[in-house]
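Thread amino acids onto this structure.
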C-alpha cells in the first residue's frame, strides 16, 4: 500500500481543486479591486546593444531610475485598469498609543488577493509600486465644491505570501499586500493627471490633492512666525550698555562737589551682553553710525561704521588709530529668501546655471572660473 501524503512534488489535481475552491470565496465574498499596473521608470537605464537586440530605452518593472537613492520617481503606469477581487479587514480609526504621541493606523491596509487569478488578469504578479483603487470606498458626500465623488487610491509597498493561504498540499494560494494611501507626489503624476470624469474637466489631482490647502496653511504659519520672530537670536537693542573699565566693571565718575556718583555716558567699546546670535550690526545704546564699503577718511575716536561689503555685515569702532571689530550682523531673517547677506544665500543656495558639454546644470558653487577659456588654448 503506498504511503499516504497530501504533499506532492508537483501540483496535482488536489492543488487545482483547492485553488478553485479558494478563488470561489473571493468571487462570492470579495470586493472589486482596480489595479493601475506599474510598467517601470519613465526614463530607465540604457540597455546595451547586442547582435540580435539594438540599443534602446525600454520600460521594465525591474529597472531602477536612481541607483544612488534606489528610487523610481518618474513612474509609468498602464493606461488600462485591471479588475481583480480582494478581501481585507475593515478597521476603525483608533489612536495608536504604543509610542510617544498619537498615531492613526487606519492609513495602512493589508489586502489579500488570489495568486493565480490576479496573475492571469494582470499578466504578472503584483509588485511594489502598483496602485490599487478601492471603488467601495468612494466618498459621494465629501464637503467640497466638486460634483464628482472622491476616489481612494493605495500603493502597494510590500507583497508576501499569506500564512492562511497555504492549503493542505503545502502550496500557497494567496498574496498579502501592504497598502498605504498615495499622495500628490512625483511618483503618481501619471495617475493623478487622469480625468476626474466630472462636468468641469478637472483631473484627479484637482479633486484629491491637498497641496494648495497645505501650502496656504504653511504660508500662514510662516507669516505669523515672521511677525513673532522676525530675526534669529535675541534682540538686545532695547537694553542700555554701560561703559566698563579694564576689570570689566562699570566706570564711575564724580558729578560735583556733593560727591554724587553717576555712571559715565561715554560710548561703550563693546556690547555688555553675550550670547548666541546677538550681533545686529547696530552700535550699543543707539549711537549714530555710518555704513558703506570703505571706511571714511575723517573719523574721530568712538565713531562706528558698518561695512556692508562683509558677509554678514560687520560693525567697526574707531579707537583713534585703527578700526576694531565690534560685532557681525548675524541676526538674519529666518525665511529662505535672497535678501540675506550670508554665504548661505549666495553659496549654499546657489541657483546659477552653467552649460557643460551642451547640458545646462545648476551650480552649487560658481563654475565661472572653471569654465573660462584658458589663455594657452
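Threaded sequence (377 positions):
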Amino acid at each position: 500500500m503506498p504511503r499516504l501524503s497530501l504533499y506532492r512534488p508537483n501540483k496535482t489535481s488536489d492543488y487545482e481543486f483547492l485553488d478553485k475552491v479558494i478563488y470561489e470565496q473571493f468571487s462570492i465574498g470579495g470586493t472589486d479591486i482596480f489595479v493601475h499596473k506599474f510598467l517601470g521608470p519613465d526614463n530607465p537605464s540604457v540597455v546595451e546593444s547586442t547582435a540580435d537586440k539594438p540599443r534602446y530605452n525600454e520600460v521594465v518593472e525591474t529597472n531602477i531610475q536612481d541607483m544612488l537613492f534606489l528610487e523610481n520617481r518618474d513612474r509609468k503606469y498602464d493606461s488600462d485598469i485591471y479588475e481583480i477581487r480582494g478581501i481585507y479587514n475593515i478597521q476603525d480609526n483608533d489612536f495608536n498609543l504604543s509610542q510617544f504621541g498619537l498615531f492613526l493606523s487606519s492609513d495602512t491596509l493589508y489586502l489579500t488577493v488570489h495568486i493565480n487569478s490576479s496573475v492571469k488578469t494582470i499578466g504578472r504578479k503584483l509588485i511594489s509600486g502598483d496602485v490599487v483603487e478601492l471603488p467601495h470606498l468612494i466618498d459621494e458626500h465629501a464637503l467640497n465644491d466638486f460634483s464628482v465623488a472622491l476616489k481612494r487610491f493605495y500603493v502597494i509597498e510590500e507583497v508576501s505570501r499569506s500564512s492562511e493561504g497555504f492549503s493542505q498540499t503545502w502550496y500557497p494560494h494567496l498574496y498579502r499586500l501592504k497598502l498605504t494611501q498615495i499622495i500628490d507626489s512625483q511618483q503618481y503624476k501619471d495617475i493623478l493627471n487622469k480625468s476626474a470624469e466630472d462636468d468641469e474637466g478637472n483631473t484627479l489631482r484637482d479633486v484629491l490633492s491637498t497641496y494648495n490647502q497645505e501650502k496656504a496653511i504653511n504660508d500662514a504659519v510662516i507669516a505669523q512666525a515672521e511677525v513673532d520672530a522676525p530675526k534669529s537670536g535675541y534682540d538686545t537693542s532695547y537694553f542700555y550698555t554701560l561703559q566698563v573699565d579694564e576689570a570689566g566693571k562699570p566706570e564711575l565718575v564724580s558729578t560735583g562737589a556733593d560727591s554724587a556718583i553717576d555712571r559715565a555716558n561715554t560710548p561703550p567699546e563693546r556690547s555688555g551682553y553675550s550670547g548666541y546670535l546677538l550681533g545686529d550690526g547696530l552700535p550699543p545704546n543707539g549711537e549714530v553710525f555710518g555704513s558703506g564699503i570703505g571706511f571714511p577718511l575723517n573719523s574721530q575716536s568712538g565713531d562706528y561704521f558698518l561695512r556692508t561689503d562683509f558677509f554678514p555685515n560687520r560693525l567697526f569702532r574707531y579707537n583713534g588709530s585703527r578700526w576694531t571689530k565690534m560685532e557681525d550682523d548675524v541676526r538674519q531673517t529666518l525665511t529662505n529668501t535672497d535678501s540675506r547677506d550670508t554665504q548661505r544665500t549666495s553659496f549654499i543656495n546657489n541657483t546659477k546655471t552653467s552649460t557643460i558639454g551642451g547640458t545646462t546644470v545648476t551650480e552649487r558653487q560658481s563654475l565661472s572660473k572653471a569654465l573660462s577659456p584658458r589663455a594657452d588654448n
